[in-house]
Amino acid sequence: MGQQCLIYSFVARGSVVLAEYTSFTGNFSEIAVQCLQKLPASNNKFTYTCDQHTFNFLVEDGFTYMVVADESTGRQIPFAFLERVKDDFKHRFGGGKADTAVVHGLDREFGPRLKDHMQYCVDHPEDMNKFAKVRAQVSEVKGIMMENIEK
């Protein structure tokens, strides 16, 4: 897994990018924003592929977490990264500053966190795979519990 596996990331509220980070040059930010404007508002995960890169989106509660990755990275590591970013972002800004921040208003505060999360995921891909598996298992158990409660 090369250092380039995670290339660019942002957090947005609606179509407003609040914080972003990349150490690379390219047009991926423009493509990502174009994709962002076409995403449904419902909570979901989406992946678009363009020029051997995946644009991975996690939409939840009005916020969109996005990462561009090399296509060879697959989907597990990018989505584990997005879950980490979502949890950190909600912990830091949930119900407050993120609801009123302007375009790039959280770059200074959260841009370095995006960098740290990207570096961690690049350096520890085995943890991301374990994290994704555990999260999937928890989600499955939660679904079963909800079904049992509804019965």
Helix content: 40-55%
Question: Biggest β-sheet, characterized?
Answer: 5 strands, antiparallel
Poorly predicted runs: none
Mean pLDDT: 87
- Radius of gyration based on Cα positions: 15 Å
Number of helices: 5
Order of helices and strands: EEHEEEHHHH
Side by side, the strands of the main sheet go 2-1-5-4-3
Count of extended strands = 5
Query: Which word captures the global form?
Result: globular
Head-to-tail CA distance between termini: 46 Å
Structural class: alpha+beta
State which percent range the strand residues make up.
25-35%
Give a written overview of the molecule:
It is a single chain. By secondary structure, this protein is α+β, with helices and mostly antiparallel strands. 50% of the residues lie in helices and 25% in strands. The chain is built from 5 helices and 5 strands; from the N terminus they run ββαβββαααα. The chain has helices spanning 28-38, 76-93, 97-100, 107-123, 125-150; strands at 6-13, 16-22, 44-50, 53-60, 63-70. A 5-stranded antiparallel sheet has the order 2-1-5-4-3, sandwiched between helices. α2 packs antiparallel against α4 (107-123) and α2 (76-93) packs across α5. The radius of gyration is 15 Å and the shape is globular. The N and C termini lie far apart (46 Å). The relative contact order is 0.18.
